[in-house]
């Protein structure tokens, strides 16, 4: 039987509470005999006792192995159950699955990340990986800009990571839909932040968040001259096997677990998934 059917045990080593709804679970694989490696954009099937499985993107960089981070928003039974777990508890993981972001094409590029809420999770893996590489290689990325939107200031997740990225030269621009007395930053949709960003032929844009946000950001990026093959996003579908067998994630002749979850806009336009007509 393929090893990807059988969950490997992993121990929760650390829990970072990102906000009220999102926490990052730092896992360590306990079975050292399993060869495990992944690329940014890939996902795991996470199992929690008596709750089944859910697809979760890996939010850490491969450079952090054997530790793997999963940033999880409380949604239903499984995600609520893991939010109730503590350091030292065990979960199961299968994978990694799915197509990754084409990080091999990101050398010497200006990378623009546009995220909303938990959508920063898979992009965080790319940012951390690029920053790690830039310390090692001459042909690392040219620049990294992050535009990150949250509903309110208390919904802003990944604050620790954002602070660390800023110290490493990432241009991080945050916005909230609704401000409170603690906030003196930008208020408005994340698309508004795009007006102050320069897009060139060297730009690669990675977009992740709620479907409505993705749709408007992609449209704005296209208006600013970003080509279809230079804009990447991820699609979410309910998944069961995660590996192209059950057909649960079928969409327009494609299996999102195998053909995605990462797609460029040129590929998305061939799927009946979002209205891209402008
Ligand atoms: C490739 C991939 C990567 C993902 N990465 C992450 C991640 O990094 N962090 C994270 O918190 N979640 C992620 N998800 C979403 C996560 O898998 C689902 O929210 C999962 O269903 C949660 O399980 P649950 O038992 O807690 O909730 P469930 O009881 O399964 O669902 C709770 C609610 O969310 C809805 N829902 C569940 N899955 C989806 C979906 N795929 N699309 C739209 N609505 C859905 C359900 O209809 C229900 O209303 C990812 C999903 C995919 C496919
Ligand atoms: S989840 Fe089974 S085929 Fe994609």
Automatic annotation (TrEMBL):
GO molecular function: 2 iron, 2 sulfur cluster binding; flavin adenine dinucleotide binding; metal ion binding; oxidoreductase activity
GO BP annotations listed: pyrimidine nucleotide biosynthetic process
Domain FAD-binding FR-type residue range list: 5-103
Cofactor(s) needed: [2Fe-2S] cluster
Domain of life: Bacteria
Cell wall biogenesis/degradation as UniProt keyword: no
Keywords from the UniProt entry: 2Fe-2S, Electron transport, FAD, Flavoprotein, Iron, Iron-sulfur, Metal-binding, Transport
Protein's UniProt keywords contain Electron transport: yes
InterPro entries recorded: Cbr1-like_FAD-bd_dom, Cyt_c3_hydrogenase_gsu, Dihydroorotate_DH_ele_sf, Dihydroorotate_DH_Fe-S-bd, FAD-bd_FR_type, Flavoprot_Pyr_Nucl_cyt_Rdtase, FNR_nucleotide-bd, OxRdtase_FAD/NAD-bd
Record note on cofactor: Binds 1 [2Fe-2S] cluster per subunit.
Record-listed [2Fe-2S] cluster binding positions: 241, 246, 249, 257
Cited SUPFAM superfamilies: Ferredoxin reductase-like, C-terminal NADP-linked domain, Riboflavin synthase domain-like
The name this protein goes by in its record: 2-polyprenylphenol hydroxylase-like oxidoreductase
The species this protein was found in: Desulfocapsa sulfexigens (strain DSM 10523 / SB164P1)
């Amino acid at each position: 039987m393929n090893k990807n059917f059988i969950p490997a045990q992993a121990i929760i080593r650390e829990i970072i509470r990102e906000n009220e709804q999102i926490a990052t679970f730092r896992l360590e694989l306990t079975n050292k005999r399993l060869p495990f490696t992944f690329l940014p954009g890939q996902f795991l099937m996470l199992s929690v006792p008596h709750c089944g499985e859910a697809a979760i993107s890996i939010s850490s960089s491969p450079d952090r192995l054997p530790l793997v981070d999963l940033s999880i928003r409380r949604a239903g039974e499984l995600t609520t159950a893991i939010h109730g777990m503590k350091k030292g508890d065990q979960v199961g993981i299968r994978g990694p699955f799915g197509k990754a972001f084409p990080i091999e094409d990101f050398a010497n590029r200006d990378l623009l990340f546009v995220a909303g809420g938990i959508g920063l999770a898979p992009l965080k893996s790319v940012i951390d990986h690029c920053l790690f590489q830039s310390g090692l290689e001459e042909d690392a990325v040219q620049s990294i800009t992050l535009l990150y939107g949250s509903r309110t200031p208390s919904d802003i997740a990944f604050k620790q990571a954002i602070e660390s990225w800023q110290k490493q030269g990432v241009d991080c621009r945050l916005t909230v839909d609704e401000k409170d007395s603690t906030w003196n930053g930008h208020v408005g949709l994340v698309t508004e932040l795009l007006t102050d960003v320069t897009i060139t032929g060297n730009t690669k844009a990675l977009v992740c968040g709620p479907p409505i946000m993705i749709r408007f950001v992609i449209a704005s990026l296209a208006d600013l001259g970003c080509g279809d093959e230079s804009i990447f996003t991820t699609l979410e579908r309910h998944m069961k096997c995660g590996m192209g067998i059950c057909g649960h994630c079928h969409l327009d002749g494609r299996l999102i677990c195998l053909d995605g979850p990462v797609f460029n806009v040129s590929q998305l336009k061939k799927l009946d998934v979002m209205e891209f007509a402008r």
